[in-house]
Amino acid sequence: MGTTVCPECDGDVRPSDDEYVCTDCGLVVAADRVDRGPEWRSFDDGPADGKRTGAPLTRSRHDRGLSTTIGHGSDTRLTGRKRRRVARMRREHARARIATKRDRNQVYAFTEVRRVVGALSLPESIQEQACTLFESAQNEDLLKGRSLEGFAAAAVYATCRVRSLSRTVEEIAAVARADERELRVAYDALNRDLGLPTGPVDPREYLPRYANALDLPQHVEGRATDLAATAVESGLATGKNPSGVAAGCLYLAATDAGVDCTQADAADAADVSPVTVRHTYQALEERRDAPDDAVGTVAVADD
Amino acid sequence: MDRENRRVISKEYFGKDRLAEHHFRSFNSFLNRGMQQVVDEKETIETDIGDKEGEEPVFVELSDVRVVTPRVREADGSEELLYPQEARLRNITYSAPVFMEMSIVKGEEGEERVVDKTETKVGRMPIMVGSDKCNIAGFSDEELIEIGEDPADPGGYFIVNGSERVLMTSEDLAPNKILAEYDTKYGDEIQVAKTFSQRRGYRALVLTERTRDGLLEVSFPSVSGSINFVTLVRALGLESDEEIVHRVSDDPEVVKYMLENLEAAEVQTEEEAIEALGKRVASGQGKNYQLKRANYVIDRYLLPHLHEEGVEEEETRINKAYYLCRMAEACFELALGRRESDDKDHYANKRLKVSGDLMKDLFRTALNKLARDVKYQLERANMRNRQLSVNTVVRSDVLTERLEHPIATGNWVGGRSGVSQLVDRTDFMGVLSHLRRLRSPLSRSQPHFEARDLHATQWGRICPSETPEGPNCGLVKNFAQAMELSQNIEDEQGLKRQLDSMGVEGIPGLQGQGHDQPADD
């Protein structure tokens, strides 16, 4: 309903219940027979139930969340033969929910995805997307001879990278049932055959987490973000472990701001060796010592 | 009293911290000991691993549970403290991570070894604004304003998905008390003594009724129909006629009634009685199983509230017999007109379930759900020959979901609905009134005139005038301003010792004392 002006008298049009009425002349400009207002019946007491729909469809369940169960009835309890029959039907029905091996694998992998996502406190949308990715991998027949757990973990890892919320392989492997090797194998397969839209990881994606782990104040993190940006732009970060670059930037930013932070701490937070941190740190230092006008012209020491 | 003193007192009563004090006390005690209690009750998670030949059994031991203060994990992975106002504005839940120490134990009995012991995050617990674990606890007015919080806000509610929810205090009939009343059966008036026996979230109704032919019958869960009173007390170890009569009453009239009962007794000894009970609870089964089942039913379903940590079943059984005798006495006295039927609306027969109690119920079912999931995950991981580790079998969203969803919708465990309500922010008074409101679980579609009436015992506890008009009239009440809510104590032994020192005799389960005392209610 786009009209806000009455076609007859140019007065204001206001929505009231299910009609759009002109406030001046009272003309009903449009009617929308669906009343979107609150329900007037009371469902608090009695058997009436206000529910009309179930939960929305979701990709993170093997049946899209559209399952039926044989319930236990409300008032009359069945007895004897009939009860046994219903119990049998219930059991058979529960078995029939998972029809194929493929479905069973999906159920297992989806719970694993859900668990990893929960353990890393990632947003729920990641779960949905990771499950979809897993399904595509299944459709492409990538799972043969590789581990389910690896694919579940790799789906989460890949989704994080695609969404620029990168987690390191180590971080995922720490909470996943798969080990690092399984994860890498699965991720390589995903990347190769599904053509994931991922580029190199930007070290900036790691900064908030590491800064948090190191308990660094906001301004240090901001400074580190700037440093990381220059590092990426100048090509200084190319070919380096982005975790290490992030840690190096944080370390440099912290020392500049006079905040207490050792190279070992920074390396620990990023799960890299102190040497890696030092590399980035020294490279950045060198760059800063070089005259300003040299920026971009001087190829940064090839390391 | 002079004006100055009165002013001091009313300041105390109407001060900001007192208005929602009952919520804070209840929720804090839930956080401080209730949660650990629930975990200790659960103790272990058993699995089916080891049922197969040549497989070592596995189970999980639960120990310390710990809640930190509310924090939020951003998408980029950083974690920060969360303040209520931010939760409201961002439509997120004001909840704190819960950690639990779990150990996976493997091996045959006697040679168990711990495979993995880790403290792991099991989920998130919604935190009451203003409670001990709230991030604004102990803030000064200036600090509160600094973080965007209203210093006058009373707290006492939760924030789930950005909406503020209060848990409605509910008014239930007191558990573990004998209530005597009249009832009708087949057109005749009979006398009934009722007890809602409650322990650890399990609630069992035990009924003792005197039927029209003067015989006593007891019914309790897991037994269909009712059981002869004499049979049951004999099964509990109260054997001789003399002792049974003596335990019920010394009143000659009551003794007469009791003798009628003993005359009609089906069994004479404890063994016979247990056999008779076995036939009732497992009819058509083998004899050994019947006996096993009878003993199990007695110890598990009959008067569970008489059980106590560290007291043997043997002793509890005789206490149960004494308790049933008290119930019998109540029936007879009612039949003889020696007492009136108990008043259900009397405030001494009411207990209030405040937010902490409600959260405890919720946490218990959530933990059970988590345990079932851990069991499943362990079995799956084992089947696929994975290394079993605590971190990879706990799904933290299970507990979180089970805790948040009921608060968000008001659909509590046990089928109650409307337990949590959106805080009434119409005006400031509305909030205060809402936090001090209580609800009777009685259906509002039925008349229940007596329950809606103002009862004399509500004096000083319940406001005599604040109640809604319409269907909820008299069922929704509000606290009186100066009401004090007393709370369950932590140290029961201490209470018993105190009572003993004040001269109460025959306290059961009091340590460092003879065990020959009977148990009264």
Task: Summarize model confidence as the mean pLDDT of chain A.
Answer: 83
Question: What global shape of chain B is seen?
Answer: globular
Indicate the proportion of strand residues of chain B: 15-25%
How far from one another are the termini of chain B? 41 Å
Q: How many β-strand runs of chain B?
A: 18
The Rg value of chain B, from CA coordinates, equals 27 Å
Structural class computed from helices and strand pairing of chain A: mainly alpha
Oligomeric nature of the chains: heterodimer
How much helical structure, as a percent, in the residues of chain A?
Answer: 40-55%
Low-pLDDT windows of residues of chain B: 513-521
- Largest sheet of chain A, if any? 3 strands, antiparallel
CATH C-level category of the largest domain in chain B: Alpha Beta
Q: Give the strand line-up of the largest sheet of chain A.
A: 1-2-3
Indicate the topology.
The complex is a heterodimer of chains A (303) and B (521).
Chain A lengths: L12 E4 L2 E4 L5 E4 L48 H17 L4 H19 L4 H16 L8 H15 L6 H7 L4 H15 L12 H7 L4 H16 L8 H15 L6 H8 L3 H16 L14
Antiparallel strand pairs in A: 1-2, 2-3
Chain B lengths: L2 H12 L1 H4 L1 H22 L1 E3 L11 E10 L3 E3 L5 E3 L2 H6 L5 E12 L6 E14 L14 H6 L11 E3 L2 E5 L1 E5 L5 E7 L2 E12 L2 E9 L5 E4 L7 E2 H7 L5 H8 L3 H12 L6 H12 L5 H15 L11 H23 L14 E4 L1 H29 L6 H4 L2 H14 L10 E3 L5 H8 L1 E3 L9 H4 L23 E3 L13 H10 L20
Parallel strand pairs in B: 9-17
Antiparallel strand pairs in B: 1-2, 2-5, 3-4, 5-6, 7-8, 8-16, 9-15, 10-11, 11-12, 12-13, 13-14, 17-18
Helix pairs in contact in B: 3-12, 6-9, 6-11, 7-8, 9-10, 12-14
Can you offer a commentary on this structure?
The complex is a heterodimer of chains A (303) and B (521). By secondary structure, chain A is mainly alpha-helical. In chain A, strand 1 (13-16) and strand 2 form a beta hairpin. Chain A has a 3-stranded antiparallel beta sheet with strand order 1-2-3, with no helix packed on it. Chain A is built from 11 helices and 3 strands. In chain A, helix 4 packs across helix 6 and helix 8 (218-233) crosses helix 9. Helix content of chain A is 50%, strand content 4%. Chain B has 521 residues and is of the alpha+beta class. Chain B folds into 2 domains: 3-167 and 354-436, Rna Polymerase Beta Subunit, Chain: C,domain 2, CATH 3.90.1100; 179-348, Alpha-Beta Complex (Dna-directed Rna Polymerase Ii 140kd Polypeptide, Chain: B, domain 3). Chain B has a 5-stranded antiparallel beta sheet with strand order 10-11-12-13-14. Chain B has a 4-stranded antiparallel beta sheet with strand order 1-2-5-6. In chain B, helix 6 (229-235) crosses helix 9 and helix 7 runs antiparallel to helix 8 (252-263). Chain B starts with a helix and ends in a 20-residue tail after the last helix. Mean pLDDT of chain B is 86; it is low at 513-521. The chains are: A mainly alpha (303), B alpha+beta (521). Chain A binds chain B through residues 44-46, 108, 111, 114-115, 117-123, 148-149, 165, 167, 174-177, 205, 208-209, 211-212, and chain B through 73-80, 121, 377, 380-381, 384, 386, 391-392, 394-397, 400, 417-418, 443-445.
